[in-house]
Design brief:
The chain is built from one helix and four strands, in the order E-E-E-E-H. With 73 residues, it is an alpha+beta fold.
Amino acid sequence: MSEGLVDPDAAGGVMVEETNYGRLLALDPAGTLRWSYVNRAADGLVYHLNWSRLLPRGEGEALAAATAAAGCP
């Protein structure tokens, strides 16, 4: 409705964030949906997303390991 972003990936696709609807979409270069995610809580409520980004696999794995090592869930 009022916010969102598009983040290109190295393969020529894009990730689209629909901020107000709590949804992420990943599209390949042809515009075909690769995956989607809705930020939905266990009670069914959908929460906004902000500043979502695609990370290279190695960077994401390093971040996940550092988070786990710090005791974060």
